[in-house]
Amino acid sequence: MGTGYVGLTTGACFASLGHNVICADIDEQKVESLRRGEIPILEDGLDRLVHESITAERLSFVLGAATAAEQAEFVYLCVPTPQGEDGSADLSYIEAAAAEIGPVLQPDAVVINKSTVPVGSTRVVERALGRSDVHVVSNPEFLREGSAVSDFLKPDRVVIGADSQAAAIRVAGLYVGIPAPIMVTDPASAETIKYAANAFLATKLSFVNAVAAICEAVGADVNDVMLGIGYDKRIGQEFLQPGPGWGGSCFPKDTRALARIAEDAGYDFFFLKGVLDVNEEQFDRVADKIARLAGGSLEGKTVAVWGLTFKARTDDLRESPSLEIIGRLRERGARVIGYDPAVEVAPAGVELAGDAYAACDGADVLAVLTEWDEFKWLDFDKVHEAMASPCILDGRNLLDRSALKRRGFTYDGIGRS
């Protein structure tokens, strides 16, 4: 149920494992496009899996949840769970999908929450289904945009939360052939694992950016500092890269949601609130850096921005750090010209350039805010010539600082003196 990032990836990957999969959506135009093999999202390897599975007649697309569910042994709920301003999740889409499929489910069917849902949502789905002869299981996703197919087929772990051991074993059987440990627990623990994992990763990113601020103050290089601590096996190298802040469809939502879940349960998770505050502060710090490179004021200045998506290898703009920073630049009077290899429609407040060089034409500052590899290999002599003032804010520490300085650029990065 649902053909977004999670639903489409889940369906295509299960079909590639040999299962017969029906993906349902409420958007008729989207269903028709998917039937033609047209993939609406940028996700490495997904188009190939979809085409192969359609050709093998293991994957099909239908309009409406009930149509897909009436003969299904397993029904995955992969519908949106948008977040309110207070951090709470809106479960209306999940409840609506469950209410629609409840009357048509086969006895002993298994309904599985794949969407990120608050602790206790299996009970919400059970009530919405109105069926005592079906099972509800939690099977949270741990997919990273840009590598979702690989993450599904080669996961670190598969987590299954169920009250019924028999239902858990049946869901585990869907993953036969996938080389990963399968953890079976209760539904509340499975739901909490998802939130805790994303909140912990967000914590690492905020920690790195906070240390980057210290490095700038004391004259250290955050890249070397993170490399040094990453060799410690207790810490590891992953998620120790400084940047302009973190974003995307999962980390901000899940971190805020866990803080809200804790609050509702009577615990003040002030530590996690600090993680969120540091991220907001990072957006401001990067905007301040750009303003300093522009001479102290952004009023009437032109800022070129390379990278608009929340990270490379995706076309997702949701909660993008780049857009957060652009909003701050515009509030200070800047004109923003952006370029991103995966973005074809200009976000609000951004003039979209046809290529990276065009974005720099007449710019007072160039800000690199998404880590697309292609930005490293551009002709920076050409960039220098195009800009009104050759100043670069490298928000991802992506570029060769020494080479840029030799070309006459004023360079600033994150956590680098």
Automatic annotation (TrEMBL):
Give the highest taxon in the source lineage.
Bacteria
Q: Which GO terms describe its biological process?
A: polysaccharide biosynthetic process; UDP-glucuronate biosynthetic process
Name the EC number(s): 1.1.1.22
Q: Where does NAD(+) bind?
A: 25, 30, 81, 116, 145, 253, 318
Pathway involvement? Nucleotide-sugar biosynthesis; UDP-alpha-D-glucuronate biosynthesis; UDP-alpha-D-glucuronate from UDP-alpha-D-glucose: step 1/1
Catalytic positions are 250
Q: Which SMART domains match?
A: UDPG_MGDP_dh_C
Q: Which residues form the UDP-glucose/GDP-mannose dehydrogenase C-terminal domain?
A: 304-401
Record keywords: NAD, Oxidoreductase
EC supergroup of this enzyme: oxidoreductase
Question: Recorded GO terms, molecular function?
Answer: NAD binding; UDP-glucose 6-dehydrogenase activity
Q: Where does substrate bind?
A: 142-145, 194, 239-243, 247, 311
Q: Family assignment?
A: Belongs to the UDP-glucose/GDP-mannose dehydrogenase family.
Protein name per UniProt: UDP-glucose 6-dehydrogenase
